[in-house]
Amino acid sequence: MLRLTLGFVLLLSSLFAANLNTFQNTANAQTNPLGNPDFGLPFTTDPGPNTWLLGGGYGNSTGGYARRREWYGAGQGIHFGIDFSARCGTPVASIGDGVIIKVDAREHGSAPHNLLIDHQNGYASLYGHLLERPKVSVGQQVKKGEVVGLTGDPDLTCTSRPHLHLEVRDRTLRKAFNAHLLINADWDALSLSGSFGRGFQRDLDAPRKWQSLYDQPDINFGGPLINDFANTWPRDWR
Amino acid sequence: MMKLKLFMYLAGVVVALAACAPRTSAATPTQAAPVVTFATSPAATEPSPATPAAVVVDAASAPAANSQLPPATTNQTPATSPPLFTQLTTGGCCVQPFFSPDGAHVLYLDRPGSDAPVGIYGVPIAEPLAQPTLRTEKLGPFSANMAYSVDLVNGQTFIESVNGTNGEGERFGISNGGRSVSFAPDNQTIAWTIGQDAGNFDVRRSEIWVANLDGSDAKRIATRYGGGIVAWFSDSQRMLIGGKAARGDAAPTLSILDLRDGAVTDLFSSERMRGYLLAPDDSHIVFFIAQARDEALDGTYLLQLSSVVSGTAAPQPQRLDFFGAYRWRDATHLLYIPLKLNLPSHELWQLDVTTGQSTLLIPASAESQFKVGNGDWVVSPDGTLITYVNARDRNIWLAKLPSN
């Protein structure tokens, strides 16, 4: 009886694993600790030059590494969200059903305005660099795809670097996850624009580590830097 | 009953093991390289000679205001040969591949084992899945012919000759405050930018400096705001620069900077220009505008430079009928992957900039191995191949392009 039970358990677990692989599409096999939430993209339109584009991905990007202490030190040196370039005023949609838990919570960064939603499945999402204080209230229920704010520019000009910064955290808000694994989107296609590829910073002691959108570390806010490599490439150019 | 129990147990183990196995098994170096032939339909495994492989887009339908391309004509000529896909590496290795200057090897940065040195490794394109070999322990950036590499040592920039080329052991310290450099095509001149560390990105001051290869005779030759060096022209005497000439300018400008006298020729000005790519013969540049305040500006553009070089006319860029990733195949053919979501694989198109015709070289299909990861794809020096990171298995692959 024990072996029969074990067989069923293994069978079920293998079927679950297969489904997980299907969901993650081309992602490396990295399981989500809280399960798969089926989040969607934070916009109501398709990507394009006059709507929105993938800017900086989550993780150990070269751009994030260059600012590992200055901007991302609180997130262990990792770019702990996904940046979507969009002109100021582009509607931002909730990535899933949930409840507004914070509005303009400066302690979580992403000025000038931000918004946090508890999705009641173990995950929360943060929408940063919003144009104005979101016209939603704490405790308000929102649906996946519902507009909850407008994109802005952290430099307050709408010409410097207008974009949405999106994070997926646990509901304690102390941990951020690789959102590419949690948001159901064609990230490979979204990575294709213009004349450039997507580069990640190398630890030359282990140069294959953290080199795709799908293979990036989760971070704990307030923890030590995890990418202050002794030997790295690209070099720490001024 | 015991047999049933045993069957269920074994079935569970087998399925669980199968689920734990990699979805794409990595071939060992001794296995024959998988060569995948492009399929013209989801059901086909071989190309059908009767099925045109080329699809033509009418460029006249593009929203171009200033068309410099001839009117498009219908081209039903199929690509002369189907693309072939060849796996080059195994084990999820590696990213950011590039071709050796002679096009014979695909190179990438790696450290294949804990006891192996980190460096640039290579696989011969003629021997897919061959054991990668260390080409150099210099990591780059490299000059175009890979004769020189630049490195940062204790905060100082050094230019070093790469093993076995151009006088082994050449090493020049560059007094530029630990900044990377860009090599002119002739390897006689270098350039770098000294940027402002703070302030809004679109108005940060950026000084453009040039010097001899050994760092001598360094001089500031231009200043831009929110921009810098874009590309070298092949004569090594001029470069493309971008940004605002004055901090208060309304929009950045793409310009030609002549290093001989510092003269600047402005080409085109618009907000939110990005992704500049100069054609191999300097005849055109492609770029895109995204999320401009004036939505009508958004799109991909082709700017003809020959008239500027000859001094006959001010150029007007033409908007192209696609948006996505692009690379030059040769002086007259631009390859592009349109931004389309949720296709079974990526499409590859080719624009002939002399005729305005776009031709589909690699259609999307479940059988196609052309699914690019990390946005990593590079064209070979002779324009016959693409090397790319395959998003399906994270290995480096080759795509042989149909001939023109």
State the gist of this model.
The complex is a heterodimer of chains A (238) and B (404). Chain A is an alpha+beta fold.
Strand runs of chain B, count: 28
What percent of the residues of chain B sit in helical stretches (DSSP H or I)? under 10%
Give the C-alpha Rg of chain A: 19 Å
Contiguous helical run count of chain A: 3
Alpha carbon gap, first and last residue of chain B:
67 Å
Strand content of chain B: 35-45%
Overall average residue pLDDT of chain A: 88
What are the key terms here?
heterodimer, A: 238 residues, alpha+beta, 9-stranded antiparallel sheet, disordered N terminus, B: 404 residues, mainly beta, 7-stranded antiparallel sheet, 5-stranded antiparallel sheet, 2 helices, 38% strand, globular
What this model shows, in words?
Chain A is an alpha+beta fold. Chain A has helices at 2-24, 62-66, 187-190, and strands at 52-54, 82-86, 91-93, 98-103, 113-118, 123-130, 141-142, 147-150, 163-170, 175-177, 202-203, 219-220, 232-233. In chain A, the strands form three sheets. In chain A, strands 1, 2, 4, 5, 6, 7, 9, 10 and 12 form a nine-stranded antiparallel sheet that branches. A two-stranded antiparallel sheet of chain A has the order 3-8. In chain A, strand 5 and strand 6 form a beta hairpin. Chain A is globular, with a radius of gyration of 19 Å. Chain A starts with a helix and ends in a 5-residue tail after the last strand. The model of chain A is unreliable at 1-29 (pLDDT under 50). Chain B is mainly β and 404 residues long. Chain B contains two helices and 28 strands. In chain B, the strands form six sheets. Chain B has a seven-stranded antiparallel sheet with strand order 11-12-13-14-15-16-17, with no helix packed on it. A five-stranded antiparallel sheet of chain B has the order 1-3-28-27-26, with no helix packed on it. Chain B has a five-stranded antiparallel sheet with strand order 2-25-24-23-22, with no helix packed on it. The longest helix of chain B is centred in the N-terminal third of the chain and has 19 residues, at 2-20. Chain B is globular and about 50 Å long. Classes of the chains: A alpha+beta (238), B mainly beta (404). Chains A and B meet through helix 1 and helix 3 of A and helix 1, strand 18, strand 19, strand 22 and strand 26 of B.
